[in-house]
Amino acid sequence: MISSNDGLKALEFEILATEGAARAGLIHTRRGVIETPVFMPVGTQATVKGVRFEALEAEELDARIILGNTYHLWLRPGADVIRACGGVHKFGSWRRAMLTDSGGFQVWSLGELRKITEDGVKFRSHIDGSSRFMSPEVSMEVQAALGSDIVMMFDECAPGKSEHDMAKQSMELTLRWGKRSRIRFDELQREEADTGRIQISNGKFEISNNDECEISNRTADSIDEVSNGISNARTSISNAGTEVSNKIPGSTSAISNLPFEISGEAEPRQIRLSNSQALFGIVQGATHVDLRRESLRRTVEIGFDGYALGGLSVGEEKTVMYDVIEEIAPEMPVDKPRYLMGVGTPEDLIEGVARGVDMFDCVLPTRNARTGQALTSRGKLNIKNARFTTDTRPLDARCECSVCRRHTRAYLRHLYMTGEMLASILLTHHNLFFFLDTMKRVRQAIRSHNFSDFRRDFLAEIAAGVE
RNA sequence: GCAGGGGUGGUCGAGUGGUUAAUGGCACCGGGCUGUAAACCCGGCAGACGAAAGUCUUACGUAGGUUCAAAUCCUACCCCCUGCA
After folding, report:
1. Which of A77, A102, A166, A460 has its CA 20 to 30 A from that of A391?
2. CA A132 → C1' B61, Å?
3. A12 has which bridge partners?
4. Would you call A211 a catalytic residue per the annotation?
């Protein structure tokens, strides 16, 4: 129990529209409203590589939530440093929501540098080789110091092709770690160890001396076609795309979340939140549906603010991944966000949404940008290819991002081939736009019940290949 | 002019009688990248034929020579660098 916020949740999820298993909704967090389905750019080291926060916040990209990584920030600069600087938001000046991965994925990706025991994981730092110990408790403590808005439980991510026995052991360990995560997390919230609490003064939320917390966000999506079947009076969302006041309403109440203007007539919905961190559980079990189902049931028993599917896209066949999602996602709590961790390609996002997933994250748009790959409505484009040397077309003829409106493939290739950092910056910008804009179109499609057509057309076009 | 050093594949640069179609870097060409050990990693890179193993041709300034065998040794020539005149 959080004494000062009895009854209030850290996070609220509401569904605005559904089509088949796909859902369009809103996640209310203490740092703003997130329209779902959502793609979260990965910002491991408190930075989304290659993009300024201004660009992420601006209308063009309008990323509502990004990721941070517990393991990386714990090693460098260190949890104590970030705590001393007031938390990760204040440290980097990011004003919107942040989800932090627990370090669980590093248990998998740093395979040769770690040793797993019941207690936790002994890592050899990839930076200097020193020995470090991470456990559910440590992960929760670090994430409290970071002050992220959504905390992930500490899990073990087994290889995609794990045999049933191994996957079960791993799943059981993850469940025990989940329980320990929950316990330590709750203690830390009671102790107010979370640095991400939004300060309130004069009816405004403030996170630093000068910057008011950007608690509200513009209504980004055109959602006037929300069906009448949606609950409550907010069936019509007008003025799509218009700027809504960024300032907090003159409310004197504690943490409410945002004037995200939903309806021209209806009272903007204000949801009061607890101003504490939210905690998500992670379902494991590799490709074994029976294990996944059991993992889900027992994770829900522990109780979390949202549920993630972990351990996918880690070596298993793609069709297997889709099957697992299809089997498990619909069984996840309807009233909580469903998060597919680490996925994926544009096609994966569409297929995930079609199976009921609300949240995604992936390094693909940012990492691949730095290695010369643009993702377009016509599939992958390798800017290094000689065929683009004098190609004066934009990366993607259908893309409306500022890079595509201004630069040619020939120029971008030149920048890449000469090793200019601007190549990475521009490709990152384009790729993030493509991912975020695709999700915006997905949301619109679900709200107007066109998702099925959208999905078919999107996949057909992307399969056609780059001209 | 004299003395010394040197000319190697797109480029820089190893290699001093056979295991060398010639190490390596760069450039170039192609591929990969899914909760970021990633501005990274992998492959190709004389030509022709072949699915491949492989076969043939042409190559270490130029032209000769020694040798079973030469990028490697010898001779002449051409060119470059440094020093002295």
Report:
1. A460
2. 61
3. A28
4. no
Q: What is the pLDDT of residue A205?
A: 58
Q: How far apart are CA A237 and CA A260, in angstroms?
A: 11
Structure tokens belonging to residue A177? 């770690």
Point out the nucleotide closest to A70 (alpha carbon to C1′). Answer: B35
Mean pLDDT, residues A392-400: 98
State the amino acid at position A145 in one-letter form. Answer: A
How many Cα atoms are found within 13 Å in the side-chain-facing hemisphere of A103? 28
- Give the H or E element holding residue A372: none
Distance in angstroms (rounded) separating the CA atoms of residues A150 and A75: 20
Closest CA to A155 of A100, A99, A98, A108: A108
Task: Give per-residue pLDDT as tens, A43-94.
Answer: 999 999 999 999 999 999 999 999 999 999 999 999 999 999 999 999 999 9
Separation of alpha carbons A313 and A321, rounded Å = 7
A127 Cβ contact partners less than 8 Å away, ≥ 6 residues apart = A75, A76
**Residue A152, CA: closest nucleotide via C1'?**
B35
ipTM for the whole predicted complex goes beyond 0.95: no
pLDDT band at residue A113 using 50, 70 and 90 as cut-offs:
confident
Using CA of residue A10, residue A226, residue A438, residue A292, what is the dihedral sign? positive
Instruction: Give the separation between CA A234 and CA A403, rounded to whole angstroms.
Output: 36
pLDDT (tens digit, 9 = 90+) per residue, A158-205?
Answer: 888 899 999 999 999 999 999 999 999 999 999 999 999 987 666 555
> Catalytic annotation on A101?
yes
Q: In the structure, what pLDDT confidence band is assigned to residue A367 with cuts at 50, 70 and 90?
A: very high
Q: Could you say which of A149, A221, A348, A361 is catalytic?
A: A361
Whether the per-residue pLDDT at A336 is higher than 60: the answer is yes
Which of A134-140's residues contact partners 24+ apart within 8 Å by CB, and which partners? A134/A71, A134/A74, A134/A103, A134/A106, A134/A107, A135/A177, A135/A180, A136/A177, A136/A178, A136/A180, A136/A181, A136/A184, A137/A180, A137/A184, A138/A74, A139/A70, A139/A102, A139/A103, A139/A104, A139/A181, A140/A181, A140/A184, A140/A185, A140/A188
